[in-house]
Amino acid sequence: MTIAGTPGDPETPLLDDTVDGSADHKGRPARRSTTGRWRSAYFIISVEVAERFAYYGIQANLINYLTGRLGMSMAGAAENVNTWTGVGSLLPLVGAFVADSYLGRYLTIVFASLIYILGLGLLALSAVLPSDCPNSNQITSCSPPQLQRFLFFFSLYLVAVGQGGHKPCTQAFGADQFDGRNSEENKAKSSFFNWWYFGMNFGIVITYTVLSYIQENLSWGLGFGIPCIVMTAALLIFLLGTRTYRYSVKNDERKSPFVRIGKVFIAAAKNWRTMPSSADKGTPNHQVSQQFKCLNKALLTPERFSQENGGQCTIDDVEEAKAVLRLFPIWATCLAYAIVFAQSSTFFTKQGATMDRSIGWGIDIPAASLQAFIGLSIVLIVPIYDRILVPIARALTGKPSGITMLQRIGTGLFISAISMVVAALVEAKRLKTAKEYGLDDIPDAILPMSVWWLLPQYILFGVSDVFSMIGLQEFFYDQVPSELRSLGIALYLSIFGVGNFLSSLLISAIEKATDGDGHSWFSDNLNQAHLDYFYWVLAGVSAVAFILYMYFAKSYIYNKGSTL
User: Fold this and answer.
1) What's phi and psi for 141, nearest 5 deg?
2) Which of 62, 237, 292, 436 has its CA 20 to 30 A from that of 111?
3) Nearest-5° angle of CA 337, CA 343, CA 347?
4) End-to-end CA distance of the chain, in Å?
5) CA 218 to chain centre
6) pTM of the entire structure?
7) pLDDT above 90 covers what percent of the chain?
């Protein structure tokens, strides 16, 4: 399959010119013919495939490890999974700051990968320590050694720190290999986000089908150790591409973008009562956008404040601050999508463990491996979307990406809400089956209901990801100032960080509200729980969030030069 803009594509001329704002590995102006594009992107995508393989090698089956080997309750384990996932998705904000202000994306990726590898190695070590808890997926009441518990959680959050530096930089660094000002490379950049997510989910599918089986049937130590080996190999692959990469050139004459944007908000707050002087009125109105007019006050900086803070804010500084601020309504309305997304690795997995998972020949598939169908549906749909749907939409709309980024995100949010409706109906069917066969009082009973009943909700998750997840990645990369591209990816990731925390808080609140009468929605005996009620709540929250999203998306003003 030929990807637009790949080396050897007859439509892509090998122009021997330089790329503005980019340098090669020796600091010289980057040449279009010898650096960047797909030749570099392949190295970076390979690293991301390996990183996602390693991450989901932990996350996919984490709830089973916590309820089995560490003896936690189902609600407690779900909260721990959500908290760890949330922390791992918020730390990229720190990693992005370090990359954009100090180290640059390349060095941040290298150092973060080393931390990642150390965390994975310690995690594998914690899993092989002697323990009195059984190697089981069932919920058990046991107390593992304190050393094992401490080492496990220490290494788990060390992995989160490594991910915090890795995630915001790899995707931004990959997209940096395409020059958005060149028409052919601009089209390739839009495809890059699709194929990035394709490759990432290819690694995830392998994780769910292979590592889940190894962890549940062979050894948790081996199941955690393989990701460590894969991540080490990924770092070596990344280093092999060093000579081909394009590196963003910082403007030493300008302050850190974080400082510039912060100064705009401070100046605007101090000047909220200041009236424009005759000199200020000379600023051309057409150069200043009228959205968030309050920030225009930063241009009226009094002389004393200007001297104290190293100069007056410029129009470019104010517009940068506005570009970041206008992202937050979109960010906030996508949190419901993130809450829904958190369920696939927690309650979906525990549901599957209670159902008939036999595929014949005495083989039962691991409950966590069902998550592979999310990645598998993505792997199947992305090529169709990129090679068939986008060209058709491009011909109809004239836009390089076919439909706008916000239209793409909105489509995924709608499908996500539908997935919760389907999940609620299937769970109601599962509970009815347990009652009909008199198994509702037997926590470990395997119900005479095929696990394939869960397949539609997993597939809908995958379809929604093709639209919303990839759309969010491209949107937050494209709509921030060029010097803040790592921060843009970090903001996208923080949606899922905050979403996981909200999911954890919601579970905790519902647990307290419903546990008093002994009929908790999250009972350790899933056959007496009411996850269907929880899914209906999430469907309602998703519907409200979708309506609010449509309102803000309709009034959103894209940045100048956006590819849409």
Assistant:
1) -110, 100
2) 62
3) 160
4) 25
5) 30
6) 0.72
7) 20
